[in-house]
Amino acid sequence: MLDKNGIAKRIARELRDGYYVNLGIGIPTLVANYIPQGMDVVLQSENGLLGIGPFPFEGEEDPDLINAGKQTITTMPGSAFFDSAMSFGMIRAGKVHLTILGAMEVSEEGDIANWKIPGKMVKGMGGAMDLVASAKNIIVAMQHVNKAGESKLLPKCELPLTGVRCVKKIVTELAVLDVVPGKGFVLLERAPGISVEQIKNATRGKLVIEGDIPEMDIQ
């Protein structure tokens, strides 16, 4: 079973040279620490920054440098700062190649719910709705089950939706899955030490298993 850093490390393998990538709040922000050496990837934050670097070491934080989740960050050579209007202009114009988001629920059709739990205080959806409507590719980084042990991969989302039929891939502590509307969650890889049966038991939505499922390589 993977921890949060393991999930981020596996997702970093989905990056490609030349990508502009937006990292959502939570597990996705950790991906910045695992970009393969020598790969040219530019990380974007909707609060107005291109060129996010790894998280700073303790004692080296600059309180003026934060991401959309208000975490202190570093910048890379050539980074650019701008206002939110320009940032969302980039997103809405489809300039972001890949968005990595956390989620509370994902449906087998690729719907995502990640901004609101009814009855609980919420600050707003942030940039999530713009991102899911505009990004070319969306990968979700999340836990496979919630704190009550209930699956977060569902036939249909039960929480208010952020986007419809937009999620392409999911990486959890148990598995890597493609999301294929009309087909379901296609199991691609299982976490080290995790069996296909464990993934079946943790998935409420339709799980498609084709052939032998390899263990994921996160080295």
**What multimeric state do the chains show?**
single chain
Low-confidence stretches: none
Side by side, the strands of the main sheet go 4-3-2-1-5-8-10-11-12-13
CATH class: Alpha Beta
Could you report the average pLDDT, rounded to the nearest whole number?
A: 93
> Helicity, in percent?
10-25%
What class, by secondary structure content? alpha/beta
Overall spatial form: globular
The Rg value, from CA coordinates, equals: 17 Å
Largest sheet descriptor: 10 strands, mixed
Summarize the structure.
With 219 residues, the protein is an alpha/beta fold. The chain has one domain: Glutaconate Coenzyme A-transferase, CATH 3.40.1080.10. It contains four helices and 13 strands.
Question: What labels would you give this structure?
Answer:
10-stranded mixed β-sheet, 4 helices, 3-stranded mixed β-sheet, alpha/beta, 219 residues, Glutaconate Coenzyme A-transferase
Explain how this protein is built.
This protein is an alpha/beta fold. It has a single domain, classed as Glutaconate Coenzyme A-transferase (3-Layer(aba) Sandwich). The protein is 14% helix and 24% strand. The protein contains 4 helices and 13 strands. The strands form 2 sheets. It has a 10-stranded mixed beta sheet. It has a 3-stranded mixed beta sheet with strand order 7-6-9, with no helix packed on it. Strand 10 and strand 11 form a beta hairpin. The radius of gyration is 17 Å and the shape is globular. The two termini are 15 Å apart.
